[in-house]
Write a structure and sequence with these properties.
single chain, alpha+beta, conserved putative lor/sdh protein from methanococcus maripaludis s2 fold, Helix Hairpins, 4 domains, 6-stranded antiparallel beta barrel, 22 strands
């Protein structure tokens, strides 16, 4: 009997400890469950539909445009390159100065050509004397031959000598004419009336002719600054949407407030390859209208071609519209806590928004990214209706 009391007391303490431990573990589990419910959606993406960014269909003005960059240049201009190699000895006109047709712009050193020309002139005189002597010999031998006093072979030799002397004289005169032509090309003249746009040239500078492999030294150009244009390159996708005479808005980048009107005057008939990304582009010339005295050739310009406009039209952010391989456009429209895929018909678009023609109304809420838990059907393209062929009627 005395030993039973300690045994029941020990059992009660053990039971109490077990109850306390179970209570602590239960509380920890319940608290952990609450924390897990709050953290797990962010860690593993559950309930992602609550975090999908959305936007509503709004009324807006949309302009579909093509933007291109180019440089200002004169409509009519001519590059200046020398036709002979040489050294600049005199600059006669300053950069930016008006010039008239055939006005002297610069001169090249003529010393070497003048020396050669002097030498060839003396050769011409000598060849003419030799031809004159050969002519006299031929006439004398011809007279003797008519009387049968010399052999036919001797007469032929004298005639050939006379012909060779005349030929040498003609060759010398041709060389002299070529030298005189080169001498005239040592003076660079204005090809037409305009403004001189000289490169950074100095007296004493050596230049190469246009016949050189690299095209020779570009001396500058003579430009008619009364009519200016901007030349740009349009890619092969957009060029088909531009037509001759179409208007363009031209912003001159260095002159921030200068916006000029322009019109498409030329679209190249064949493409060239863009050296930067190897794409096919077409040169397009936009003639500028109006007069801006601060405008200079070489300034960069940004041109905007407006292809279509829509005012007060339902529109949607570009990122909200998806498309299938069959070019079916669709959006994910909110339906309560979920999203539903719906086909839409779209129109023109700018850099931010696209016109909605059908399928949505103003204030409809759509997802800006694809819901990951979406399990519905994507709109399919309409099945084409194939009409049965009628039997061919036999002729009578």
């Amino acid at each position: 009997m005395p030993s039973s009391a300690p045994s029941s007391s020990s059992f009660g303490k053990t039971f109490l400890r077990i109850v306390v431990v179970l209570a602590i573990l239960g509380g920890a589990g319940w608290g952990g469950k609450l924390i897990w419910k709050q953290v797990s959606p962010g860690l593993f993406g559950t309930k992602r539909t609550d975090k999908i960014p959305t936007a509503r269909v709004k009324v807006a003005n949309i302009s579909e445009e093509i933007v291109a960059v180019g440089r200002v240049r004169a409509v009519f201009s001519t590059e200046l390159r020398a036709e002979v190699n040489g050294r600049i000895v005199k600059l006669l006109v300053a950069d930016g100065q008006p010039v008239t047709k055939d006005q002297e712009i610069l001169r090249l050193d003529q010393t070497d050509l003048l020396t050669q020309l002097q030498e060839i002139d003396r050769n011409i005189e000598a060849s003419k004397l030799r031809a004159e002597r050969a002519r006299h010999d031929f006439e004398r031998q011809k007279d003797l031959g008519s009387r049968g006093l010399i052999a036919t072979k001797d007469l032929d030799d004298v005639r050939i000598t006379y012909s060779l002397a005349e030929n040498d004289s003609a060759i010398a005169e041709a060389r002299a004419a070529n030298l005189r032509d080169k001498l005239s090309k040592t003076t660079i003249r204005a090809p037409h009336t305009g403004t001189l746009l000289l490169r950074d040239l100095t007296e004493g500078q050596l230049i190469t002719s246009a016949a050189a492999q690299n095209g020779g030294t570009l001396l500058g150009e003579v430009a008619d600054l009364s009519a200016l244009m901007v030349r740009t390159n349009i890619n092969e996708i957009d060029v088909a949407r531009i037509s001759l005479g179409e208007g363009a808005r031209v912003r001159i980048d260095p002159l921030r407030n200068a916006i000029l009107a322009g019109s498409v005057h030329r679209i190249a008939t064949s493409a060239t390859e863009n050296q930067n990304d190897r794409t096919r582009v077409f040169p397009v010339d936009v003639y500028l209208e109006g007069n801006e005295p601060r405008l200079r050739p070489g300034m960069s310009a940004t041109m905007t071609f407006t292809l279509a406009q829509a005012e007060n039209t339902p529109s949607l952010s570009l990122s909200a519209v998806f498309s299938t391989a069959e070019a079916v456009h669709y959006v994910f429209i909110r339906k309560g806590e979920t999203f539903e895929a719906r086909a839409v018909e779209i129109g023109i678009a700018d850099t931010r928004r696209v016109q909605v023609l059908s399928g949505l109304i103003v204030n409809d809420e759509v997802a800006l990214s694809r819901p990951l838990e979406f399990e519905g059907e994507i709109p399919a393209p309409p099945t084409p209706v194939i009409k049965p062929k009628l039997p061919r009627r036999s002729g009578s």
